[in-house]
Amino acid sequence: MESNQLDLFKDTPVEPKQLELFAYPPPPPPPGQLEMFPGKKFKTKRRNDFVMSAQELQRWKLQIINYQQKVRETPPAQQAELFELPPNHYDPDKIEPLTLHLQSIAFYRISSDYPGKTCLYFIIDSTAQLILYVDEMLRSNKRWKQKHDCKDCIAAYQDLNQRYKLPTTIKVGFWWDTPQLREIRQDLELSLILKWRSPFNKENWGIWGQPFG
User: Fold this and answer.
1) Higher pLDDT, 148 or 124
2) Residue 39: CB partners within 8 Å, gap ≥ 6?
């Protein structure tokens, strides 16, 4: 299978959705003060007849890549403690999605004997080093066998990149050392969504727009 193609979606390519034009998000504040939400909202006007050009697609991707790289380079805020506390085992700052073992997005097609596990997972364009989506799931061998809106976003993203002959390699990385209690797991998931501003998560549509649905 070609690295920039998926066979898990329907045969006909998904047409890219209309673009929400965007402005550059502000860079992270000085070290120790990284904000998850900027004060300014990047709202855009929809145009039903508009599809991203190659230049606009590259610019959209580059904004997110640059932001995520600045997150890596910005030390997390250090909070003074009156007492020495053990390190937080589920610290989102200790999880770097790009260092995870990445595998095919068709992971759910493997043998039914594969033991599904609770985990967090990251959808990544490994060619661009771009974190696209963050989610949690209770059974890793079942969640993506069902209908999932992110599949349509991935298909539309790949379709538009292929149209402009821009290389993509969509992979998934799993973080297995995940809280079993769902409330804690979802809190960790949200922290990571806000930290990386992954564009396919609805929490970040107000920043990056919804060019892929």
Assistant:
1) 124
2) none
**Residue 185, token pair as written in the block:** 């797991």
Q: Which two tokens stand for residue 144?
A: 């993506």
The 3 state secondary structure assigned to 65-114 is HHHHHHHHHCCCCCCCCCCCCCCCCCCHHHCCHHHCCEEECCHHHCCCCC
Predicted local distance difference test score (pLDDT) of residue 116: 67
Report the pLDDT value the prediction gives residue 22, as an integer from 0 to 100.
44
Which distant-in-sequence residues (6+ apart) come within 8 Å of 94 by Cβ?
Answer: none
Between CA 71 and CA 57 the distance in angstroms is: 22
Q: How confident is the model at residue 17 (pLDDT cuts 50, 70, 90)?
A: very low
pLDDT at 35 over 90: no
The span from the CA of 200 to the CA of 213, in Å, is 8
145-160 burial string, b = 16+ CB within 10 Å, else e?
A: eeeeebbbbbbbbbbb
In contact, 111 and 141? CB cutoff 8 Å: no
For the chain, what is the mean pLDDT? 76
